[in-house]
Design a protein that fits this description.
The protein is 50% helix and 13% strand. With 422 residues, it is an alpha/beta fold. 39% of the residues are buried.
Length: 422
Amino acid sequence: MPLTKPLRFGCFLAPHHPTGENPVLQFRSDLELVKHLDQLGFDEFWCGEHHSSGWEMIASPEMFLAAAAQHTHRIRLGTGVTSLPYHHPFNVAQRIVQLDHMSNGRAMFGSGPGALPSDAKTHGIDPTLLRDRQDESLGVILRLLRGEERFTHESDWFQLHDARLQLLPVQTEMPMVTASSISPSGMTLAGKYGMGVLSIASNSSDGLDALPTQWSFAEESAVLHGQTVDRANWRVLMSFHLAETEQDARNQAVDGLQRWHNEYNVWTLGRPGAEHVDDKWDLLDRTASGGATGTGTSVIGTPDQLVAAIRHLQEVTGGFGVVMGFAHDWANRENTLRSWDLFARYVVPELRGMTVGLRESQAYLHEHRAELMGGAGRAIMSKVMENERAAAAMRITADRMAKRAETGEQSEFRPGGGIPET
């Protein structure tokens, strides 16, 4: 199915923050980022749920987003994602409904099986059960959010008896997505329930390679279950850091990128294929070219370079509806906010065609400048000649200029314009 909506833009905050900073101040900084994005006109903001790793300190996205709702006005706020196997589905449904009311209808519901094996171990859940439990929980949550019935559901890990939500969402149709990585399970689940997709693992080289075929899994599953899916609801994650020049962007991001790679991907997670890198500039080169593990679609450079990368990714995938920027701390706080500012000022309008009319108008004037300026000059002369004093002054000036031309005398320039008296 072709795209049905203009391209939209959002931010995905895992979060990924180096350990050592005051957590209270870090939460405040994250809220400042949401406020900044809201003021810049971004469409969406998503934050995740994690319970270990040190770098990912938001345990309840709903709590964080409820706070963000009080500091923003238009940006939509999504759980990116709630790990369903860790929660009773009735409580998940109640929390997203409350968030929808507290944000005045701006909530988005994203779900996943849980990304960190350490989180599953903490909860005492066999990792092989996570995706099936997400599927079962999601089916129950959707029934609860529809609010059409009381129902009972018994499972080996939760129970519901005559269950029905006492409060339903503000929105008639709340945006909903499932997380997708390299395997087809996320896409298949999206098709089963007719939902959107958040392709988080497009932030890896393997995930990027898998994108061209990923959407077909959602379409096939949708047909199988009598549902429809829309590419406009497909969100693809991209990493970037922008500055006015490519070298400025590289200088600003190189140290933070190295720490993120070595400390988080290698030392903390032990991500398959990720190895410690001593040469930070080599890591940056490989990251910006899509070759470093964990950074498959990164752009470290200028807004023009990111525009080209997004257009290329649209061609590779067949089209998606939302560009999700990955929030990170590769640069310091000031330069990070400036990067998002550059995205909003130059990348968004270029991809939405907001500058087409302005550039066409500029080009038209350029192509017809002789004709237009000549007409303007004739109009001025016509008015000058209608006034005897103005016409006389014009003739005197013309005579002086002619004499100077004959003798080769240079005119003296004075600030404020005009030709000096002789």
